Amino acid sequence: MATKKAETTAVANWDQDLADLAKAATSVESNVGTSNFIRMAGGVLTYQNAEIPGNKLNCVILNHVMENAMYDGPYDSENPQPPVCFAFGVDEDDMAPHENSSQPQNAKCKGCPKNEFGSADTGRGKACKNVRRLQLISESDLEDVPNAELAYVKLPVTSVKAWAGYVRQLAEVYTAPPLAFVTTIGTVRDAKTQFKVTFTMKEKVDKAKIGALLELRKTKETELYTPYSKQEDKPEAPAKGKLGKRKF
After folding, report:
1. Which of 51, 104, 135, 153 is the most exposed place for a label (fewest CB within 10 A)?
2. Under 8 Å between Cβ of 138 and 248
3. Would you give the DSSP letter of residue 141?
4. Is residue 96 within 8 Å of 109, Cβ to Cβ?
5. Which long-range contacts (CB under 8 A, 24 or more apart) does 112-118 make?
6. Does the pLDDT at position 46 exceed 60?
7. Which among 131, 192, 137 is positioned nearest to 162, based on CA atoms?
8. Contact 66, 95 (CB under 8 A)
9. pLDDT band with cut points at 50, 70 and 90 for residue 32
């Protein structure tokens, strides 16, 4: 009969075996199209090709930027293409096509015919989509902010108002930006647009962490403006952190 000590040792060995197998599996899949952009296709949150548990993301949103993007024809998930014209900025009046745009539509976004309502091929919307790009870290990385792994979210047009409302709410109630809070990002079904993104304030960030978060935001701000690649419909991945150690 096995002793209790022997049984404990066996369980410990199994844990190590499982950990080794997990590491090996991660290594095998490390080259399969992963990036640090969180996807929201169909309202399902995924990160590095894996679904986020519970479809809820607890994070600290460090920064955000406006993004305008116009595509040549309807989106094709089987053959994704980058936008032919795109721009980033924090002031709509100053936004202009990025130098990587293959077909710049106008000298500036303001006044561009493709950035006017009614310019879309169907409906009354714009041919150019006005969205937001968010830069964030996982709630768990608050334990070691300087070494946090950054991730990014591109909000759909239909969720920009919800994001703007959330930012205003935090400013009016707490006189603070999203960086000062742990935010829960999720999605809800929507009859017209399939889904919408939701933002809920979970709790305030410990004041002792604010300084480190501000420094991280400052040093990583340029990565928020990473342009689209020319091969596929996703931004080029900024320098990755601890790949394989998913925090989301």
Report:
1. 51
2. yes
3. G
4. yes
5. 114/70, 114/85, 115/68
6. yes
7. 131
8. yes
9. very low
**Cβ neighbours around 130 below 10 Å, total:** 17
CA angle 164, 167, 172 (to 5 degrees): 120
* Residue partners of 161: CB distance under 8 A and separation at least 6: none
Where are the extended beta strands (E) located within the chain? 37-38, 46-47, 50-51, 57-70, 85-89, 128-138, 151-155, 181-190, 194-204
* pTM of the predicted model as reported, rounded to 2 decimal places: 0.75
Radius of gyration of the chain (CA): 21
- CA angle, residues 127, 46, 82, in degrees to nearest 5: 30
Q: How far is the C-alpha of 71 from the C-alpha of 230, rounded, in Å? A: 13
**Residues 34, 16: Cα–Cα separation, whole Å:** 26
The pair of three-digit structure tokens given for residue 179, joined into one six-digit string: 């960086």
Lowest mean pLDDT among 42-56, 176-190, 207-221: 42-56
